[in-house]
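Second attempt. The first submission of Kinesin light chain had a stray character pasted in from the spreadsheet, which I only caught after the job came back as garbage. Lesson logged: always re-copy from the clean sequence file. Corrected sequence (583 aa) follows.
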Amino acid sequence: MGDYSKALEFYEKGFEITKKALPPNHPEFATSYSNIGQVYNDMGDYSKALEFCEKSLKIREKALPPNHPNLGSSYNHIGQAYNDMGDYSKALEFYEKDLEITKKALPPNHPDLATSYSNIGEVYNNMGDYSKALEFYEKSLKIREKALPPNHPDLATSYSNVGEVYNNMGDYSKALEFYEKSLKIREKVLPPNHPSLATSYSNIGEVYNDMGDYSKALEFYEKSHKIYEKALPPNHPHLASSYGNIGLVYNDMGDYSKALEFYEKSHKIFEKALPPNHPSLATSYTCIGQVYNNMGDYSKALEFYEKAHKIREKALPPNHPDLASSYNNIGQVYNAMGDYSKALEFYEKDLEIKKKALPPNHPHLAGSHLNFAACYEGMGDYAAALKSLRSAFQIQQQAFQEGNPAFASTYSLFGRVYRSMKDYPKALDNFEKCLSIRQKALPDNHPDRATTYSDIGDVHRLMDNYEKALAFHQKALNIQENVQCNPLECAMTYINLGETYRETKDYSTALTYFEKGLEIREKKLPKNHPDLAVVYHNMAKLYLATRKYSMAMKNIQQAVEIAQEKLPSTHPHLLEYKETFEK
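This time the job returned cleanly.
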């Protein structure tokens, strides 16, 4: 029920009784230590968990023969603690010791062997080695299919595990197929309000959210939430996670006030249910920080990301991947604020940890290189941006099959860099590759498809193909004005449209779109954000063309002031603004 202090209290009372009744190395002590260790693990106090699990192991090593199943159980618990700590090589080491004993002690199709394979699969999944994860999850599944009746709940767990790997690989149809197999079993064998049913609905909701089908995602997350409300006490951590899932969908939809409302509900429960330095509290602060970041409220975003970081520094070992995520999040805020040197500083800390904590082809490492690329692109250092992009692309080629949704953002960023370098054919080629992937992976009205249409439209404009440019921008707007998406993405399309109309000398329509884009950016971004300078510069060029020189001067001055404050002195944008200013 999530009441860890109560559980500890009972286990410790039991321990006191055992102490009086039995000699110090009696196997019963091992059980007590093990139980206490598991509670600490659930509380997120991993060093305490290890301490008690290791005490349990020491007793069992002395008291039991070397292949006794209880020894395997001890190795298993220690493996679990290392897995939760993000020390995956250690986790594997202990899970493999457990597997060795289990193989010797039990017949080849024993369900406990399936559990051992499943644990190893989970570590490989966390390491981003999805083919290995599938291999072990499928071994586990085969045993369960032979050893258990067709509707056994453990079979449902196996299908669910396989589904999770496919979801991580971006193979959403396969993920749904396995999650639905799992759900069918659970619907047959469990009462209608069982928490495992809620887990199934939640998993399916996650796939739909990743596919950008937000209404379906909400439908499944809400089904899950209703069960948790009936089945669990009001302050159970699962309920908090459930509110968090719903918050995530609203965040992805760009409905930030709704997202905050659900994230705050989630956070209140975590504060009541968990000790103050529990990693789940850090995750909760991170979610709230993300909403503020998306809203362009960067000081608030930093405040919450730093709260998350403080907890992780206390609760986790120094090379835990979640610590890297904290540095990454803080870096993204500085990047969004246009403070590129600060962003780089945090991205480097992020990458340093990931290189130590993760295998060299983990997709999260590719994500780090993509962040560097975006930052260098913002700084106008296009050679460095391309170098980082190539590093990301190499990792993704080893981690994923061609056409995987993960490649879309890489192609998109390649397109952006080539566009900035004025290599328009290469830019177009990459944006079209991105679109091709997104058309296969995402529903017609997904906001990411709109962004890609707008990017393609912009390259057509730069190639003087105005008719095509307008057609693609219109496709983007049709999605953005009818689906809830990030307002800043809509602003980008308005500004791209404004530029297209300016270049075709339809100045009044151009001005209308510039003003629409500017209004959103002025609301959402800090006053000295480089993206505001872009609009001021565009408007200055328009006013020059229409001979409104005082308005042109006012806008170009604003653009130059921002660029001088926020961009490196050699940045192409700053040089371009100065050139316009001198006209």
